[in-house]
Design goal:
Largest sheet: 4 strands, mixed
CATH architecture: Roll
Helix content: 40-55%
CATH topology: Diaminopimelate Epimerase, Chain A, domain 1
Number of strands: 4
Length: 143
């Protein structure tokens, strides 16, 4: 994906997703692409369904979306987690990302967003002994 994240940073982000998911039954995905020709929220909704994030048992998937060249981002939570988090929570998480991105700290911004989402997922959807990893922790990439 160019120079947005190094291979080492990508692996650190995948590890952060795994660590966050070890403490919750929720699922977190990160999708990165260069361009977003539409509203980033609408694009994230499209990707949410393309990545089958709405297929989790508890409807507690979270997608963090970033279009690197267009400087657009969005976070989508499925209905299970959206009913639980306080109003404005996803915007707070986006602000956390923006703060780090503006300083050129892309990896840190994404990792903190994953951690932030993971904490809320853990609060409302704690890890269950019979939990299975329903979605890949790998970063998905678009055009």
């Amino acid at each position: 994906m160019g120079t947005f994240l190094s291979r080492k940073e990508e692996q650190a982000l995948i590890d952060a997703i795994g660590k966050a998911e070890d403490r919750t039954s929720g699922e977190i995905r990160v999708h990165i692409e260069t361009k977003c020709d539409s509203d980033p929220y609408q694009r994230a909704i499209e990707l949410f369904y393309e990545l089958k994030m709405n297929d989790t048992k508890d409807r507690n998937g979270v997608l963090i979306y970033v279009a690197t060249e267009d400087h657009k981002m969005s976070i989508i939570g499925d209905q299970g987690i959206n009913q639980m988090v306080p109003e404005g929570f996803w915007n707070e998480t986006l602000q956390l990302m923006r703060m780090h991105f503006s300083a050129g700290q892309f990896s840190a911004g994404l990792s903190l967003a994953v951690e932030h989402a993971g904490e809320k997922l853990r609060t409302y959807f704690p890890y269950q002994r019979d939990d299975t990893d329903e979605l890949s922790n790998d970063i998905s990439f678009g055009h």
